[in-house]
Structure formats: structure tokens, C-alpha cells
Design brief:
single chain; mainly beta; 22-stranded antiparallel beta barrel; five-stranded mixed sheet; 9 helices; 42 strands
């Protein structure tokens, strides 16, 4: 028995050895029969290399081009079919017979875009045609920023349909009202990194590198699965430019002046003196030094504002370095740094709506509501990117963001530091599946008289799958996140997203999406305790809860072509639900058990962040973009959009319905008045945007139109209608101004440019052409008509 067993083991071992030898022989033969094909893909017009071109062999996705536009594939000897495809470019197919390593001639792909087929990365974290996304998005090009004379990024964003920026607070489709810099439901990114401050989670718009912007991408709808907290209503991602094969240097100088506002003459403090004005310049230089890419840029700005006591002086410089490894194809490391010094006088509220409409509440003395301050901002962003030959992409990035605020004459200084890190993996599989996974962590440290000393941390992990079945693309994702402030651990939400996009015809795309979102309250919203300019208190709310919700949307994107004209129309219906919506509210915040009296109301009157239990915003949005020619020489570009929303506090709505049911004899006017109380504060129900440009030879003429309907509701204390103290207005004149301007506001801007030479361009820009007096939030007159002369140099 033992002998037979030994014999059996001997034969088995011999069999295994024979099998292994055969496998090794087969493997060696296979390796010996493999050869390498490599090459470079370029744009046919610019001759710039293209990154991310899909290269497939025999109908199987093998790789994508790296940061140098190059690719490398191992194949068996013999005849193969190679296909090169890229978003908004024609697909090229060729057949090749290889017997040894082969270097292919450079392929030049021809763009099929006429300027309307935008390519975006923010919604899926990789390049994709805008029409193929399953969420609504908008894109801002650098020319739109330059031509309209936008001095800060929020100026340009205000021209996007469905998007408004009120006093620095970004709102997408009515998701936010006015919060005076406390928190944001729209997450701002620069090259995918969060730009919100560590203390107030607010946006520093003038810190953004407007002069080196490649494209701004705006996601309309909850995007927390990929981007986490503060992406409850959407994302604004500012993508910066990198050098091309040709060095580029730009300068942009501008000088501007304000007209007298359309208000009573005795309210203009500079009458008979020099008009308030502004000036500044931007610069940018980008260049490749072999494998090293360099971009440096800067901005200098000075303004004596049209509002008395307000001013702005700042200087910012940025440096972006990227090294592309030659011996390790697809590997890149880099670092971006930015630094800004700013000295400002920030204006809060007017004295009244007549003689003091340009003067600050409390005058210009010690009790003024104008806050003087010095601000230092610094950001350091290192990163590593690796595009592997198998099509997978690995990204590791970090950020250090310092916000140092010092206010004169008060104890409102703060030092806030944000540390951020993220690791992301993405891979395209041959069966048209794309996986995106990552982990991100944030650490906030805040030391301030405003808030005290606090530490916050956040850790989140996410996974998204995208599968394509012919003309149908389906997306699903999940994220888990843990938030902590000091020793208190916040809720740990698990959120989901799902979406689909179906190409119904050559230029017709149907889409549907569902996305959940959340936002943890900022340290400022929880712990702030101060007065604004010594005039109006802000109270803390340590018990405030995170807000959560979801947005759902269905839409259709339709391309059109008539003669030389091409256009894209997009129609979307959306619905957003919020729970524990955080509202920065103005009112009386008596501690429990405190006797209420009119004599004591001043002590407890001010701002406070509070939770609204439930809210809903539903609506429709229609946008249209077109380009074409009038005659033979006039080129036209047009963008238009209209958004209608129904923003409701659903708890108030339930109370109103119960009241109406118990009071059946109410008149129609009484019912209408009650129903208006359901509308969320500081929202315009209807907005419309229009932008056009006509180009003839060296001349360009353009204009922008913006309409915001009348804001139905705002904090009652501004209107003198608070039920506790009827007739008491915290700031005089807001109610009267609203009565005189009850039909909404429309603003018209215009610009005329002349391209004198290849490198020299001069522009004349006018904003608020009709010099309309209007407000977008209480007690703050928006800019009157102003003129800008702008000189651009590019070589």
C-alpha cells in the first residue's frame, strides 16, 4: 500500500512538473511573440497633444494617452485593428500588421465641436461630453470672463442661468438665500480641491485665480457622493490651465469709474468731488521647460467703493509647477501655491433708504457697521497623478489653506487652517465599466475671539460605478462620512446617487438623476458670538443639526442645426427636498425663561443660524446655446436661460393649510397673503439670463441681461412686520424701498472690443447700463452704472 502510494505521488509530481514546463514554455512563446506599438496623438488644428485618448486594439479598450499624449500597447505579432477615440473628436480606425516593435506615425484627430459641445470632468471625475452627463451642468469659458470685465469669479458666475451669487453666497436653483458668509450649500473647488474656509465654510471669491482659468464647471444638484459635505446643492469647479507647447504670456490692465447712483442727490457723499473708481491688472505666464510645466500668475486690485467707507486693496500671486516623468510614462508630480494680502472696509447696511442710502448704519465713526480688516490667505496644494498603461488613473492630492483675519478696533480676528488629503483610483474596463473610488480626509483648526478654539475633522470614502450599454449609460454611487467637532461626533450619513443617460438620436439625449446630499454646520454657525461693526449681534447655536436632502431631475438635451447655425436646447424638471435646512435668520433670540419686553429687545436682536425642519424646491429650467453667422462676416454666439422655482417651507405650508381649513370664510386675498408666508426667504421665483456676442473682423460687441423677480419674503424684522414688535425696523427704509421696487430687477451690461493687433486688444465695458437702483439683500444698494477701460496683451 505504501509502495503504491509512493509511486502515485511520484507520477503526480512528474505530471505537475510536465504541466508547469508546458505553461512556462507557452508563456515564453507568448512573451516572445508579443511586440510593442507606441505613438502620439495630437489635435489637427493646434498640434497640441491630447491627453486621455482611448486606444483600443481589436475592439478591446487597452489604454489611454498619457500626459504627453503618448501611448504604449503590447500585442501579439500579426494583423490588428487600432481605433483612436476621444470626446468631441472624430474616431480614427486603422489596420496594421506588426512583426516587431513598431512606432506609429503621429495621429491627428479632428475636432467635431463647433464651440457648443463642451467637455467636462466634474460630474464623473473624467472627461465626458456635457450632453452625455446625467445631471444638469453649465460651463464658463475664459473668453466670457475676460470679455465681460469680471473682476472676481462671482461676477462671471452671476451670468449663468439658474445660478446667483448674493453678497458672496452662491445659490443654485434657489437652494440658498442670504447667509452673510456663514456656510455654503454649494461646494467651490479649484482643480478638484475644496476652497471653503475652515472656520465659516465661506468662499473667498477674490482668492480664485481668475486670470489662469481654463474652464469653470457647475453641477446643478446634490453631488455629495463624490464631493462630500457642502455639495448639497451642487459644485462649482474652477479648472486652471496648463502650458501648451507654445509659451503664453498675458497682461490685462483696467481702469473704472462709478456713476452717480439713481438715488436722491443729497444722498451722494462725493457730489462735487472725485467719482469713486477702481483699477488693477492681472498677469499670467505659462511655459514648458522639457518635462517641467510652469504657470505663474497674479492680480493687483484697488477700489474706493461707491458705498461710503467701503474700499478694497489686494494683491495675489500664484505659482503652479508640474513635472512629467520621461522614464515613467504617465507619472506626474506637482505643487500649486497661492498667497494673497488684502486690506478692506466691508460695508454691512445702509443708514436709511433716502439721504443715507450710501452711508453705513452707525455712520463712519466708532459705531459704524463698516468693518476694517486685514486678511491673509495662503494655499499649498501638492499632488501626484499616474495614468497607467492599462487605463487606470491614480491621484493623490493634498491642501493646506490658511485664512488669517484681523479686524481693526474689535476683537473679531481669527486664524483658521484647513488640512485636506485625498486618494482616488479610477479604471476603465474593456466591457465599458468605469470604477471611481477614493478616500478623503479634512482637519480644521480654528483659533479666534469670534469662535474660541476648536478642532474639526472629517473622513469620507466613496465608490461610483458607471456602465455603458450601447447608447445607455447608467451611474450609481455611495459615500460614507464621519464628522467631528471637538469631542462631539456628528452624524455619519450614507448617501447614494443614481443616474442614467440615453442617446435617443444623433443629437438627442435623455437623462434622469437622483442624488443625496448633506452639509455639516460650520464652526462659525455653531460658535460665533460677535457684533457686526459694533451694531448688530450674531448669536451662537451649538445645538444646530446637519442638514440633509436629495435632488431629483429629468431632462432632455437636443442639438439643432439649421444652415450655418448650430444650437443646443436643454430642458430640465427638478425637485429638491431638505431636512433640517440651516437658515441664517434675523430675529429676537431670547434665552428660555427671559421676560420679553420692548425695552430689552435690542439686547437679543440679531442673526442666528437655525434649522428649518423641512423644505422643498421644485421647478423648471430651460437653456439654449447657439452659434452661427449673419451674412458672411458676422459671427454670433448666444446663451439664454430661464429658471422658475417653487421654494416652500413645508412645515409652514402644513400650518397654513390647517389654518385655512379651520377658517373657511377667508377671502382670496387673505389666502394669498397666508400662502406667501410659505415661501423661503431671499428667493426670486423667476430668473432669466441672456448673453450674446457679435464678432465682425476685429470688432466684438456683446451684452448680458439678468432678471430676478421680486423677493417675496425676507426676515420680518427688516420689514417692521415681526409679530412681537410690529412697526419696529432694525434698519430703516427696507420695506419702503421694496414697495417702490416691487416688480423685480433687470440689469443690462454691455461691452465693445477691438483687436488692434495680434497681441493687443482694447475693450470698453459698461455695467448696469440703465443705472437701476436695486437691492439683492436687505439694506445694501447694488453697484450703480460703472465704466471700465480694459487693455489686454497676449503673446
Amino acid at each position: 500500500m505504501r509502495k503504491n502510494t509512493s509511486k502515485f505521488l511520484s507520477h503526480t509530481a512528474a505530471g505537475y512538473m510536465l504541466l508547469i514546463s508546458c505553461l512556462l514554455l507557452f508563456f515564453n512563446e507568448t512573451c516572445l511573440s508579443q511586440v510593442t506599438i507606441k505613438g502620439t496623438i495630437k489635435d489637427s488644428a493646434s498640434q497640441e497633444t491630447l491627453v486621455g485618448v482611448i486606444v483600443s486594439v481589436d475592439d478591446t479598450v487597452n489604454t489611454t494617452t498619457d500626459l504627453n499624449g503618448s501611448y504604449k500597447i503590447k500585442v501579439q505579432k500579426g494583423t490588428h485593428k487600432l481605433v483612436y477615440s476621444f470626446v468631441t473628436y472624430n474616431t480614427v480606425a486603422t489596420q496594421i500588421t506588426v512583426t516587431n516593435d513598431t512606432v506609429m506615425p503621429d495621429f491627428a484627430l479632428h475636432s467635431t465641436s463647433q464651440g457648443l459641445e463642451a467637455v467636462v470632468v466634474s460630474a464623473s471625475m473624467y472627461e465626458k461630453s456635457l450632453a452625455e452627463e446625467n445631471v444638469s451642468m453649465a460651463v464658463i469659458k475664459p473668453s466670457e470672463i475676460e470679455n465681460t470685465g469680471a473682476r472676481e469669479m462671482d461676477d462671471a458666475i452671476n451670468n449663468v442661468p439658474g445660478v446667483n451669487v448674493t453678497d458672496g453666497q452662491a445659490s443654485i436653483r434657489g437652494g440658498s438665500g442670504w447667509a452673510y458668509g456663514a456656510g455654503s450649500r454649494v461646494l467651490l473647488l479649484v482643480d478638484g480641491l475644496p476652497e471653503l474656509t475652515a472656520d465659516a465654510s465661506d468662499v473667498i471669491w477674490d482668492f480664485l485665480p481668475i486670470e489662469e482659468t481654463q474652464q469653470v464647471e457647475i453641477i446643478k444638484g446634490a453631488a455629495s457622493v463624490l464631493y462630500g459635505s457642502s455639495a448639497l446643492d451642487g459644485v462649482i469647479n474652477v479648472r486652471t490651465a496648463f502650458p501648451t507647447s507654445t509659451p503664453v504670456t498675458t497682461f490685462n490692465f483696467f481702469e473704472g469709474v462709478y456713476s452717480n447712483p439713481n438715488v436722491p442727490g443729497d444722498s451722494v457723499p462725493w457730489n462735487g468731488q472725485q467719482q469713486p473708481r477702481f483699477d488693477g491688472f492681472t498677469f499670467m505666464h505659462s511655459q514648458r521647460f522639457n518635462q517641467l510645466d510652469l504657470v505663474c500668475s497674479g492680480n493687483v486690485y484697488s477700489e474706493q467703493n461707491y458705498l461710503e467707507g467701503a474700499y478694497d486693496q489686494r494683491a495675489r500671486v500664484s505659482l503652479n509647477l508640474r513635472y512629467r516623468f520621461k522614464k515613467i510614462s504617465g507619472l506626474m508630480v506637482g505643487v500649486r501655491t497661492s498667497y494673497m494680502y488684502q486690506h478692506t472696509g466691508t460695508y454691512l447696511a445702509w443708514e436709511n433708504d433716502s439721504s443715507g442710502i450710501l452711508r453705513p448704519l452707525g455712520g463712519t465713526g466708532a459705531s459704524s457697521s463698516v468693518v476694517d480688516g486685514i486678511f491673509l490667505r495662503e494655499a499649498i496644494d501638492p499632488y501626484i497623478n499616474y495614468n497607467a498603461p492599462d487605463g487606470s488613473r491614480i491621484t493623490v492630492q493634498g491642501r493646506y489653506f490658511l485664512s488669517n483675519n484681523s479686524d481693526y478696533g474689535s476683537t473679531d480676528g481669527s486664524i483658521a487652517e484647513l488640512y485636506y488629503g485625498e486618494a482616488k483610483y479610477q479604471k476603465d474596463f474593456k466591457f465599458h465599466l468605469t470604477i471611481t473610488a477614493g478616500v478623503a480626509t479634512t482637519l480644521n483648526t480654528v483659533e479666534a475671539q469670534l469662535y474660541g478654539i476648536h478642532k474639526g475633522s472629517n473622513v469620507g470614502e466613496y465608490l461610483q460605478l458607471e456602465q455603458k450599454f450601447g447608447n445607455l449609460t447608467i451611474t450609481g454611487g455611495i459615500r460614507h462620512e464621519i464628522n467631528k467637532v471637538d469631542s462631539i461626533v456628528g452624524s455619519t450619513p450614507i448617501v447614494f446617487r443614481a443616474g442614467a443617460n440615453y442617446k435617443l438620436a444623433k443629437a438627442t439625449f435623455l437623462r434622469a438623476s437622483y442624488g443625496e446630499g448633506y452639509r455639516f454646520p460650520s464652526i462659525a454657525e455653531q460658535f460665533i458670538s460677535t457684533t457686526i461693526g459694533g451694531a448688530i449681534p450674531i448669536f451662537p447655536n451649538p445645538s444646530i443639526q446637519p442638514e440633509t436632502g436629495y435632488s431629483a431631475e429629468i431632462g432632455i438635451n437636443q442639438g439643432m442645426k439649421i444652415g450655418s447655425w448650430q444650437g443646443v436646447a436643454d430642458l430640465a424638471a427638478f425637485n429638491s427636498i431638505y431636512k433640517n435646512l440651516i437658515d441664517f435668520s434675523f430675529g429676537f433670540w431670547y434665552p428660555p425663561g427671559t421676560p420679553v419686553s420692548e425695552q430689552m429687545y435690542i439686547k437679543w436682536l440679531g442673526f442666528k443660524s437655525v434649522n428649518i425642519d423641512n423644505a422643498q424646491i421644485k421647478g423648471l429650467e430651460l437653456t439654449y446655446t447657439a452659434a452661427g453667422k449673419i451674412g458672411r462676416d458676422v459671427h454670433v454666439e448666444l446663451t439664454a436661460g430661464a429658471t422658475a422655482i417653487d421654494p416652500i417651507n413645508t412645515d409652514t405650508k402644513d400650518s397654513v393649510q390647517q389654518y385655512e381649513a379651520s377658517h373657511p370664510n377667508l377671502s382670496s386675498s387673505q389666502k394669498d397673503s397666508l400662502q406667501k408666508t410659505e415661501i423661503l426667504n431671499y428667493r426670486s421665483l423667476y430668473t432669466a439670463k441672456l448673453a450674446f456676442e457679435l464678432s465682425y473682423k476685429k470688432f466684438t460687441l456683446g451684452g448680458n441681461y439678468r432678471y430676478n423677480s421680486f423677493i417675496v419674503n425676507m426676515d420680518k424684522i427688516f420689514l417692521g412686520t415681526d409679530p412681537q414688535f410690529p412697526g419696529v425696523e432694525v434698519v430703516p427704509g427696507v420695506a419702503r424701498f421694496r414697495e417702490l421696487h416691487g416688480n423685480g430687477d433687470y440689469i443690462i451690461d454691455g461691452h465693445l472690443a477691438y483687436q488692434a493687433t495680434k497681441i493687443f486688444k482694447i475693450s470698453f465695458i459698461v455695467k448696469n447700463l440703465l443705472n437701476r437702483a436695486y437691492i439683492e439683500r436687505p439694506a445694501y444698494l447694488e453697484p450703480p452704472r460703472n465704466f471700465t477701460l480694459q487693455v489686454g496683451i497676449r503673446f
